[in-house]
Design a protein that fits this description.
single chain, monoatomic ion transmembrane transporter activity, mitochondrion
């Protein structure tokens, strides 16, 4: 209910350590929270253990569907750089590699957004497809367009062009 509480909740959800929680540890955490809810906690359970269990559940279980979120699409996966982001920053990109890495990054983002969506109201699949296509087309168009503009910029030295090209992925994503 406070800013600090919401901030801590956000930090718990994006904590990359939750990516490595096993299925058995998740079940233990959920069971501990159920025991707490029913007032049947085993003796010796600390508040720190309850907080840890809550953190695990919030990061892995979808709050609306109560389904486990597939590991690469959890919010905690967005806290660390994924392969698509690293690929965007590779030097000497060709047109094909630019298109591929932009597509991969937007596809990953779309999957994360879908997996962590507000599922209290059903949305038609067509809305998700429209959003996905819009994101991919926009990102690829911006990246390719900026690369072409930079290559045609005669006023820049080759070193300046190369430096500017390193920043093209940022406005595209």
């Amino acid at each position: 209910t406070s800013f600090y509480g919401r901030f801590r909740h956000f930090l718990d959800i994006i904590d990359p350590r939750t990516l490595f929680v096993t299925e058995s540890r998740l079940k233990e955490a959920v069971q501990l929270l159920e025991d707490y809810k029913h007032g049947t906690l085993p003796p010796g359970v600390t508040n720190k253990e309850l907080w840890g269990a809550q953190k695990i559940k919030q990061a892995i279980i979808h709050p609306d569907t109560n389904e486990t979120i597939f590991m690469p699409f959890r919010m905690s996966g967005m806290g660390c750089p994924d392969g698509a982001v690293v690929g965007l920053l590779l030097p000497n990109q060709t047109l094909a590699s630019t298109v591929f890495w932009q597509w991969l990054n937007q596809s990953h983002n779309a999957c994360v957004n879908y997996a962590n969506r507000n599922a209290t109201k059903p949305s038609p699949t067509s809305k998700f497809i429209q959003g996905y296509l819009g994101a991919v087309i926009s990102a690829v168009s911006i990246a390719v367009g900026l690369n072409v503009l930079i290559q045609r910029a005669n006023k820049f030295t080759p070193a300046t062009r190369l430096l500017i090209q390193r920043f093209v992925p940022f406005p595209a994503v």
